[in-house]
Amino acid sequence: MGLVLVGFILGRKLPAIFPTRLGQFLFWVGVPISIVAFLRQTDLSGQIWIAPAIAYLAILLGAFLAWIVIQGQAYLTKSFPEPSTQGSLILAAMVGNTGYLGFPITLAMVGKEYFAWALFYDLLGTLFGAYGLGVLLAARFGSKAGNHQQMAKAILINPALWSFGFGLLFRQMTIPPLIEFSLNTLAWFAVASSLILIGMRLSLLSSWYKLKQAGSSLFIKMLLVPLILGSTLPLFGVTGEAAKVVVLQMAMPPAFATVVLAETFDLDRDLAVTALAMGSMVLLVTLPLWLWLF
Q1: Domains and CATH numbers, the chain
Q2: What's the CA gap between 238 and 224, in Å, rounded?
Q3: Is residue 27 a contact partner of residue 96, using CB atoms and an 8 Å limit?
Q4: DSSP secondary structure string, 13-63?
Q5: E strand residue ranges, 122-279
Q6: pTM to 2 decimals?
Q7: pLDDT tens digit string along 252-266?
């Protein structure tokens, strides 16, 4: 909360280009270093590969429930929302901020030992869900065709994905204590910076008039999906701290990717932005709930 608040204040004081530059630094340098550093200290045993499968279940369930809500609203009001609004509603209900927000929350609440669960959920689940199924849905509901090659390129050149592979290879290498210490320091600096960046981006958001529509997506994304799938995790053999990590990732607010897709495919950007900002604040209430339940 403190780091996000610092970011919110800095976002109002610093030039508008600063959050963009900080985001680029984290995307290309900070997050990849964190992944490599924390992978050296995490436990990769157990059923860790089930994390991406649960991510896909959460994405599909969120999209399905959002579609049900849209059909229900249309039945009651005798009119369908604009296709662009439908697209933003579905995207906000299915794709969560499991990287910039999910990683630091997992590290703070559960620890480095189970960080790989969050990592697998994000890089092998959310990333492909957003720029795979998310792109298909955005193209279906948007009025612009969008550049599918750009979206494919966004996945292929994603440095977090490459650092994930490098980190797996780098795990067994012995390095001098000073380099290990420097690597960990940079990793935690990147974690803190990502929370500050969240605050900066929130300070620049000004669209709040679609709270009611955003609320339905957030109810699905941050309450229904984690509750339904979280209660079934023991059936997959996922219990204890690992289950807590997966539930926290499922319960994250909508991802910044939803705004990117809304802008790229001409969806309802105001709704995407409102859901993102509102979800980040609602997390302060829902996070203790999930920690208590699990």
Answers
A1: 2-293 (1.20.1530.20)
A2: 19
A3: no
A4: HS-THHHHHHHHHIIIIIHHHHHHHHHTTS---SSTTHHHHHHHHHHHHHH
A5: none
A6: 0.88
A7: 999 988 988 888 788
